[in-house]
């Protein structure tokens, strides 16, 4: 497949972060290697990630929740687009299931699952059905963590392999740590950085519980970069309890924030291969994170891992990192040595998957 030009249809649903960045990286890398690439997804994704700058973009209404009328239109549109493709590569459960349901598909189907199923109730039941559709109809399923792979194999997936999801390089910092600290009003306090969508999956209530302390001396400043549906309730709690936490909203200066931070802190209930963890490791920052999904394999000896939902363990890990400079220095030194994939590795891996899917 790598030696012959391939017609690739990349499909994604609504995305504001890692999935969109990953698809953009693949589109750019595949096009640069001489393959014909079409990206299909909601118009908002093209505005956010500039797909039309590196490939042809086709608008397809793939929403983040089941919507029967919209989903039927999406399936019809994907059927038409897939007719001109050698391989359809869908990203995420919703996009993968809709691509699998498009009748008349002759192209090979590869689905990358970037997240675990966390919904419950009626929505969770629907997503459970979509998981089985993907497991049974996809020619190849790529997963971002071992637990996802085990689940898909149990549901009947024929071929499951690890996904390669590298973080695109961050631009160099544009400001000094002192300038960032001044903007944030940190004073002499250590800065603990979280970069996450403000949503249930990210465990931010646990982060706020941990931020209550107690800490030795003055509490560190927890800063959270990101937006999402939980912003108002999180801010209300921060204000009501006087927590040492600042919600910064979406930020384009993550490299600056990492440069000023003592550590990256993630309290997520589940993660795959979070891009921010890779970015922190490349920046030489220690990581305090929950031991979920693909995080332990990424962090290795460059961080401290705690159980998800355990605010006490998260607080104690932060306290230990701040109280033991030698430990912090060892973790920071180990961070840039972690073996992390690059864009070339990701493109090579998907081309191998495409070749296998067409056999």
TrEMBL record:
It holds the Pfam family Glyco_trans_1_4. Residues 17-166 form the Glycosyltransferase subfamily 4-like N-terminal domain. Keywords: Glycosyltransferase, Transferase. The keyword Transferase applies. Coiled coil: none annotated. InterPro entries: Glyco_trans_4-like_N, Glycosyltransferase_grp1. GO terms for molecular function: glycosyltransferase activity. One of its GO terms (biological process) is carbohydrate derivative biosynthetic process. PANTHER family: SULFOQUINOVOSYL TRANSFERASE SQD2 (PTHR45947:SF3). This is Glycosyltransferase involved in cell wall biosynthesis.
